[in-house]
From TrEMBL, chain A:
<dbReference type="GO" id="GO:0016020">
    <property type="term" value="C:membrane"/>
</dbReference>
<dbReference type="GO" id="GO:0005315">
    <property type="term" value="F:phosphate transmembrane transporter activity"/>
</dbReference>
<dbReference type="GO" id="GO:0035435">
    <property type="term" value="P:phosphate ion transmembrane transport"/>
</dbReference>
<dbReference type="Pfam" id="PF00005">
    <property type="entry name" value="ABC_tran"/>
</dbReference>
<protein>
    <submittedName>
        <fullName>Phosphate ABC transporter ATP-binding protein</fullName>
    </submittedName>
</protein>
<keyword id="KW-0813">Transport</keyword>
<keyword id="KW-0067">ATP-binding</keyword>
<keyword id="KW-0547">Nucleotide-binding</keyword>
<keyword id="KW-1278">Translocase</keyword>
From TrEMBL, chain B:
<dbReference type="Pfam" id="PF00528">
    <property type="entry name" value="BPD_transp_1"/>
</dbReference>
<keyword id="KW-0812">Transmembrane</keyword>
<feature type="transmembrane region" description="Helical">
    <location>
        <begin position="218"/>
        <end position="236"/>
    </location>
</feature>
<dbReference type="InterPro" id="IPR051124">
    <property type="entry name" value="Phosphate_Transport_Permease"/>
</dbReference>
<keyword id="KW-1133">Transmembrane helix</keyword>
<keyword id="KW-1003">Cell membrane</keyword>
<feature type="transmembrane region" description="Helical">
    <location>
        <begin position="287"/>
        <end position="309"/>
    </location>
</feature>
<feature type="transmembrane region" description="Helical">
    <location>
        <begin position="115"/>
        <end position="139"/>
    </location>
</feature>
<dbReference type="GO" id="GO:0006817">
    <property type="term" value="P:phosphate ion transport"/>
</dbReference>
Length: 259, 319
C-alpha cells in the first residue's frame, strides 16, 4: 500500500538550533521524490521527520504537520513507534544487525510487529522481501549466514528487504548509495524503480544524475544564508527542476554541479 | 643525520632508510612482548607453587592427612564455593545489566554521572568493610525475610528450616558477594552498552522498535561478549572472595542447598583463611591443594565462558 505525504509548515529544531524552516510539499503515492541540496541544508532532517526518526536525538522537535493520507503523524496521541512501522527507512551506511543471520535480519521488523508468525509465513516473507530487494538469488543458499558477511551493496539491499518486509506505506532512503560502488549503485537504482510500483519512495542524494535517473519529483533545499535555517527552495517534476527551474538558486546549484 | 649517512646500507636510497622514528616501534614491541612474557612467567610460577605444594597432600595416605581424605575434605568446600558464587551471580547479573541499561539508555545525563560515581565508589570499598556490613547490618535485616520465606515456601528444599538465629547464612553471604561484584559487572556492561553503534540502534528504531525492543535487538546482542566478560570478572572475584565470606558465614563442612539454616557449606577461600593459622606440615599442603582446586574451578569457568563467546564469533559484529 502506498500513501500520499503532505508536509505543511514544517519547522524542525535541534534544541535551540533551528535546522529547517517552513517546508511545504506534497508527495504522491507510487512515486519517487528526490531531495537534493548542499550539505547541511536539512535534507536528512526533513526526511527523518517523515517517520519521526529525528526525535531519537535528544532535544529535537518539530512544529507543523506531516500528513500521511490525511492523518497527521504529529497529531495528539500518535505513537512514533507506530509511525515508523508504516514509514520505513534505509540509511546511508548499510546497517544489518551483525548478530543476526540474513533470514533473521529480514524478519527483524516482522518479529516486532507480530511475534506469532509461523515458520511457513516467515519463509514466505523472507523470500518475497529478498526477491523484491533483488537479493534472493544471491543469498538463498546462505540464509543462515551472518548478514554482516555480505558485500556492502548486498548489505544495503538486505536493509531494503528488511524495511519492506513489514509492508510499510512509505520507504525513506538517506543517501542509500553513497557508500557503494557504481555497480551496486545501479542495482539499488533499479530496485528503486521497482519499489515505486508499491511504495511511496523518498530519497536523499548528492548525486544529480542519480536524482535525474530515479525520481519523478525533485525537491531542492538550501540555506538562505550561512547560519539561517535550511529551506525548501523549489519542488517540481524532476524534468522541470533539471531543465527549467523557476528559481535562480536551483538553476545555479544544478548547473554548478554539472559544470 | 651524518651518522645516518655513514650507516646507509647499500641499495637503500635516503627516503627509504630506517629512521629514528622506528626506534619507538622497536622499544614498544620489546616492552609489550616483555609484558606478555612476564604474565606467562608469573602464571607459571604460581601454578608451579600450587602444584608442588599440593603433591604431598594429594599423594599421601588418607590416614596421615590432618583433615582426613583429601577429596572428601575438599568436596563440600568446592561445592560451597560454586554454590555461593552462583547465587551471587544470580542476584548480581540481572541487576548489573539493568543498572547499566538504565544508565546508558534511560537516565538523564546528570543522573547518569552521579550514578556512575556511586557505582565506582562501591567498587572501592574494601572487602573487610563488606564483611562487617554483612554481619552487623545485612544479617539482622535478612532474618525476618528468612522466617517469612521458610514459613510460606518452606516446602521448597532451598527454604527448608530450621531458620538460622543469626541470619548469617549462605544466602546472606551470597548477597554480600553480589554487592561486591555488582560494580565490576555494571562498569563493564555500561562500557559496552555505550559503544553500541548508533547505526544499529537506529536500524531497530526505524523498524518500529520500542526502546526496550531496540535494546533487545541491537544493544544486548552487540554487548553480549562484553556482558560475558564482565560476568567472568565478577565471577572470578566471587569465587575467590575470602574475607567477606569468612566473616559473614557461620560455616560447616556440609553439602546442601538450604539457604536459610545455620549449617552452611563454606567456600574454599574462606576455609583456607580460617584453617590456615592452625595448620602445620601436611595440613598446610592439604589446604594449598584445596587452593589448587579453586584455581582449576576458576580456570574451567573462564574457559567455558570464552568458548561460549567464541562459538558465536561470526555473529559478533566484530567484522
Ligand atoms: N544530531 C544533531 N544535533 C544537532 N544538530 C544537528 C544534528 N543533526 C543535524 N544537525 C544540524 O542540522 C542541520 C541540517 O542537517 P542535515 O543532517 O539534515 O543536513 P543534510 O542536508 O542531510 O546534510 P548532508 O548532505 O551533509 O547529509 C545542519 O546544520 C546540522 O548541523
Ligand atoms: Mg544527510
Amino acid at each position: 500500500m502506498s500513501k500520499r505525504i503532505e508536509i505543511k509548515d514544517l519547522d524542525i529544531y535541534y534544541g535551540k538550533f533551528h535546522a529547517v524552516s517552513g517546508v511545504n510539499m506534497t508527495i504522491q503515492p507510487r512515486s519517487v521524490t528526490a531531495f537534493i541540496g548542499s550539505s547541511g541544508c536539512g535534507k536528512s532532517t526533513v526526511l527523518r521527520s517523515i517517520n519521526r526518526m529525528h526525535e531519537v536525538i535528544d532535544g529535537a522537535y518539530s512544529t507543523g504537520q506531516v500528513l500521511l493520507d490525511g492523518v497527521d503523524l504529529y497529531g495528539p496521541g500518535v505513537d512514533p513507534v507506530r509511525v515508523r512501522r508504516q514509514v520505513g527507512m534505509v540509511f546511508q551506511r548499510p546497517n544489518p544487525f551483525p548478530t543476526m543471520s540474513i533470514r533473521e535480519n529480514v524478519l527483524a521488523g516482522v518479529r516486532l510487529n507480530n511475534s506469532k508468525v509461523t515458520r511457513p509465513q516467515a519463509e514466505e516473507i523472507v523470500e518475497k522481501s529478498l526477491q523484491a530487494a533483488n537479493l534472493w538469488k544471491e543469498v538463498k543458499d546462505r540464509l543462515d549466514r551472518p548478514g554482516s558477511g555480505l558485500s556492502g551493496g548486498q548489505q544495503q539491499r538486505l536493509c531494503i528487504a528488511r524495511a519492506i518486509a513489514i509492508a510499510p506505506d512509505v520507504v525513506l532512503m538517506d543517501e542509500p548509495c553513497s557508500a557503494l560502488d557504481p555497480i551496486s549503485t545501479l542495482a539499488i537504482e533499479d530496485l528503486i524503480h521497482q519499489l515505486k510500483e508499491e511504495y511511496t519512495v523518498v530519497i536523499v542524494t548528492h548525486n544529480m544524475q542519480q536524482a535525474a535517473r530515479v525520481s519523478d519529483q525533485t525537491a531542492f533545499f538550501n540555506l538562505k544564508e550561512q547560519g539561517k535555517p535550511g529551506e525548501l527552495i523549489e519542488v517540481a517534476s524532476t524534468e522541470k527542476i533539471f531543465h527549467n527551474p523557476d528559481q535562480k538558486a536551483t538553476e545555479d546549484y544544478i548547473t554548478g554541479r554539472f559544470g | 643525520m651524518t651518522a645516518d649517512t655513514v650507516t646507509d646500507p647499500p641499495g637503500a636510497p635516503g627516503a627509504l632508510r630506517r629512521t629514528s622514528r622506528q626506534i619507538g616501534d622497536v622499544v614498544f614491541k620489546g616492552f609489550s612482548t616483555g609484558s606478555g612474557i612476564t604474565i606467562l612467567v608469573l602464571l607459571a610460577a604460581v601454578a608451579t607453587f600450587l602444584v608442588g605444594m599440593s603433591i604431598p597432600a594429594l599423594t599421601a595416605d588418607a590416614a596421615d592427612l590432618p583433615f582426613g581424605d583429601f577429596w572428601a575434605y575438599v568436596a563440600p568446600y568446592a561445592f560451597g564455593t560454586v554454590w555461593a558464587a552462583a547465587l551471587a551471580m544470580l542476584f548480581a547479573v540481572p541487576l548489573s545489566v539493568g543498572i547499566a541499561l538504565f544508565l546508558t539508555h534511560y537516565a538523564p545525563k546528570r543522573v547518569r554521572q552521579i550514578f556512575g560515581y556511586i557505582i565506582d565508589l562501591l567498587a572501592a570499598v574494601p572487602s573487610v568493610v563488606f564483611g562487617l556490613w554483612g554481619i552487623n547490618v545485612l544479617a539482622p535485616l535478612m532474618r525476618p525475610l528468612f522466617v517469612w520465606l521458610n514459613q510460606y515456601l518452606g516446602w521448597i528444599p532451598f527454604f527448608a528450616g530450621p531458620v538460622s538465629g543469626t541470619g548469617r547464612t549462605i544466602l546472606t553471604a551470597a548477597v554480600v558477594l553480589a554487592v561486591m561484584v555488582l560494580p565490576i559487572i555494571t562498569a563493564m556492561c555500561r562500557e559496552v552498552f555505550t559503544q553500541t553503534p548508533r547505526l544499529h540502534e537506529e536500524a531497530a528504531l526505524a523498524l518500529g522498535a520500542t526502546r526496550w525492543e531496540m535494546i533487545r535487538q541491537a544493544v544486548l546482542p552487540f554487548g553480549m561478549p562484553g556482558i560475558v566478560s564482565g560476568c567472568m570478572l565478577g565471577l572470578g572475584r566471587a569465587l575467590g572472595e575470602t574475607m567477606a565470606v569468612a566473616m559473614v558465614l557461620s560455616p560447616a563442612a556440609v553439602i546442601n542447598v538450604h539457604l536459610l539454616t545455620s549449617s552452611n557449606p563454606n567456600t574454599i577461600a574462606a576455609n583456607i583463611a580460617l584453617a590456615f593459622p592452625e595448620a602445620y606440615q601436611l595440613g598446610v599442603n592439604q589446604l594449598i591443594a584445596t587452593g589448587l582446586v579453586l584455581f582449576v574451578i576458576t580456570l574451567a569457568v573462564n574457559m567455558t565462558a570464552r568458548w561460549v563467546v567464541a562459538r558465536r564469533k561470526e555473529f559478533s559484529g566484530a567484522n
